[in-house]
Amino acid sequence: MRLKGKVAMVTGSSRGIGNAVAKKYLEEGAKVVLIDRDEEGVKKSIEEMKQYGDAVGYAMDVTDRARVQEVFETVVKEHGTLDILVNNAGITQDAQLYKMKEEQWDAVINVNLKGVFNCAQEAVKIMRDKKTGSIINISSVVGLYGNFGQVNYAATKSGVIGMTKTMAKEVGRKNVTVNAVAPGFIMTEMTQKMPDNVLDMMREKAPLGRLGEPEDIANACLFLASDEARFVTGTVLSVDGGVVL
């Protein structure tokens, strides 16, 4: 087991990519702390995860700084430490630039950037002291190449990449790695609701001719959290089927 004895936190883990990452980590021996702002979603996820391993969970809004601090303190108190953080929580509120409302911009910036900052800052406090740890930030190919109707989302995912590289430089001397994963078009509950013609277009853009699965991202997150990636930091791993070639 590649993560045996590790304590990992995954935000936005009640469904989609976060859920797949949590399952993968559990299967590889980690104790996983499930985080979601939906309390019922957390409870449901804990029950679902019992078959895979040792999972606990807390309801937490990543934009609520006081609550973030409280949960991180609780994790250390109840589970001893934190070895891995996956900053996966994120939202979209799409609109073309000239139609986008201020509240749409603010909401996406708040969750996708401030949320990453809040959680990473608390994690670093723990990891610096013990001189080991791994932070994985979920970005997107949209952050690398943009996407129609997503100026707010693209800004945040580009920002996540900049944050990742800066964090890696700041905490590297403390033996803490910080990396980003940039998913391409992944088949999640959200994409399944899209029209067939849009899904077909997304498939055609990828040289592999298909959409990715949440497990594809989970595998990348497993590598970056494992000892096999101990000399990998500040990198952006695109998992996109070649869509941006």
From TrEMBL:
Its EC number is 1.1.1.100. GO terms for biological process: fatty acid biosynthetic process; steroid metabolic process. The active site is at 153 (proton acceptor). Pathway: Lipid metabolism; fatty acid biosynthesis. Belongs to the short-chain dehydrogenases/reductases (SDR) family. It comes from the Bacteria. InterPro entries: 3oxo_ACP_reduc, KR_dom, NAD(P)-bd_dom_sf, Sc_DH/Rdtase_CS, SDR, SDR_fam. NADP(+) binds at residues 12-15, 88, 153-157, 186. CDD domains: BKR_SDR_c. Catalyzes the NADPH-dependent reduction of beta-ketoacyl-ACP substrates to beta-hydroxyacyl-ACP products, the first reductive step in the elongation cycle of fatty acid biosynthesis. SUPFAM superfamilies: NAD(P)-binding Rossmann-fold domains. This is 3-oxoacyl-[acyl-carrier-protein] reductase. It comes from Isachenkonia alkalipeptolytica. Keywords: Fatty acid biosynthesis, Fatty acid metabolism, Lipid biosynthesis, Lipid metabolism, NADP, Oxidoreductase, Steroid metabolism. Homotetramer.
